[in-house]
Design goal:
Strands 1, 2, 3, 4, 5 and 6 form a 6-stranded antiparallel β-sheet that branches. About 30% of the residues lie in helices and about 35% in strands. It is an alpha+beta fold. The chain has one helix spanning about 1-35; strands at about 40-50, 55-65, 70-80, 85-90, 95-100, 115. It is globular and about 65 Å long. The protein folds into 2 domains: about 1-35; about 40-120, no CATH class. A hairpin with a 5-residue loop joins strand 3 and strand 4 (about 85-90). It is built from 1 helix and 6 strands.
Length: about 130
């Protein structure tokens, strides 16, 4: 009976220690995500075509990201005058995205850049009907 009780207590202690480690990591992760969503972290967001390995689109700057929808991602950038710009990126089975933390650089949090990679855009011709 004492052996079972000691084993049970050891299992409980091990589980508590595991939960404490996970809890600390989840708190840090939450804090970093919150800081990034409050426009305090310089990041790079890139959409990559998984068939061609080419970058299709990128945003570099301090932005908030909403990736709750699997088919689209919303990026919000704060402007210096207090306004916001929202970019919506559609995803499909041939694209993936990556977010890189570029922290540590001293930059203007209101400046961001959006880059379209011209080699990845399919050209088209617009014609008028007569």
């Amino acid at each position: 009976m004492k052996k079972k009780r000691k084993a049970f207590i050891a299992v409980i202690i091990a589980a508590c220690m595991a939960l404490v480690g996970c809890s600390e990591a989840s708190i840090v992760s939450s804090n970093v995500s919150q800081d990034a969503d409050n426009f305090n972290v310089l990041r790079r967001f890139a959409v990559i075509n998984s068939r061609t390995d080419k970058v299709e689109f990128e945003v570099i700057g301090a932005f908030s990201l909403d990736a709750a929808d699997k088919e689209k991602i919303s990026i919000i950038c704060e402007m210096e005058d207090g306004t916001y710009k929202k970019h919506i990126i559609g995803l499909n089975e041939n694209t993936m995205y990556v977010i890189e933390d570029l922290g540590g650089a001293k930059v203007n949090k209101y400046k961001y850049e959006v880059n379209y990679i011209p080699e990845s855009i399919v050209p088209f011709t617009v014609t008028e009907k007569e």
